[in-house]
Amino acid sequence: MLSLAGIGKTDRERMAAILRATKGTISVDEAAVILGVSSSDAAKMLARWTKSGWMTRVRRGLYVQVSLESRTTDVVLEDSWLVADRLFAPCYIGGWSAAEYLDLTEQIFSTVVIMTVQKPRDRRPSIKGTAFWLRTVPERALFGLKPVWRGQVKVLISDPSRTLVDMLSDPALGGGIRSVADMFSAYLRSKDKDLELMIKYAQQLGNGAVFKRLGFFLETLAPDETLGMDLCRENMTTGNSRLDPGLKADKLITRWRLWVPESWVLKEGDGR
């Protein structure tokens, strides 16, 4: 375990002041304002503390404190959501990462899905041992979100209905359509089930394939949900879509305008 040996009283006081005034991440500019020093001096302090093992640099000009239990600064981020919120805002935690948090799946995903308004060059960055997958969304798509407190920081995450709509829009966000089907089944059993809200979100998102996949799922997994299926039919767009763009599809379910793998067809005549 790291001890306070090797860092002087003045540095301890300065570091404590910065940690009190920041929320999980520390920028050079913030440190400069808090301590009343120049940006150059603040950068030198943070670099010195990083070399001593008290801080670790996440990106140029951005640092986080290293846990006292860690013996090295080469550690996985203690809270990747805080760093994501700082680096990729406006954004929200979505896809399988939201599904994990919302108990819609028991699967463990090592990559954190971030839905961001930004258009980064690197959409698969790895930061201090944590892998991120960045998906760009328009600012108008920042709806259906709820705040989650991570310490003193409020991070946005898609609510259960929005999480499913996003994954029905792009099954890859849920790890593929079979995984999405399992999560949707969990959603149907949960207290958060709200098909009318899902339809509303899908209308706002404006992806017609969502209604085709949702209608097919309801017919397959919850055939008693006739109102939900009727709403999906009313909102379907023309043209045919794939159940999962990542899978070979050889059977057309005409009533849902959906190409599906043969293994998903449950009864004779589905494609007629």
Describe the overall structure.
- Helix content is 40%, strand content 18%.
- It has 272 residues and is an alpha+beta fold.
- The protein folds into 2 domains: 9-65, Orthogonal Bundle (Arc Repressor Mutant, subunit A), CATH 1.10.10; 80-264, no CATH class.
- The strands form 4 sheets. Strands 4-5-7-6 form a 4-stranded mixed sheet. Strands 1-3-2 form a 3-stranded antiparallel sheet.
- The protein is elongated.
- 36% of the residues are buried.
- This is AbiEi antitoxin N-terminal domain-containing protein.
- It holds the Pfam family AbiEi_4.
- Residues 13-64 form the AbiEi antitoxin N-terminal domain.
Helix/strand structural class: alpha+beta
Topology as a string of helices (H) and strands (E): HEHHEEHEHEEEEEHHHHHEEE
Question: How many helices?
Answer: 10
Estimate the helix proportion, in percent.
25-40%
Q: Could you tell me how far the N terminus lies from the C terminus, measured between alpha carbons in angstroms?
A: 68 Å
Q: Low-confidence runs (pLDDT<50, min 5 residues)?
A: 1-5, 69-76, 267-272
Q: On the 0-100 scale, what is the average pLDDT?
A: 87
Give me the side-by-side strand order of the main sheet. Answer: 4-5-7-6
Q: How many strand elements?
A: 12
Q: So what's the overall shape?
A: elongated
What is the radius of gyration?
A: 23 Å
Domain unit count: 2
Major sheet details: 4 strands, mixed
Beta content comes to 15-25%
Domain AbiEi antitoxin N-terminal: 13-64
Pfam families: AbiEi_4
Protein name: AbiEi antitoxin N-terminal domain-containing protein
Organism: uncultured Desulfobacterium sp
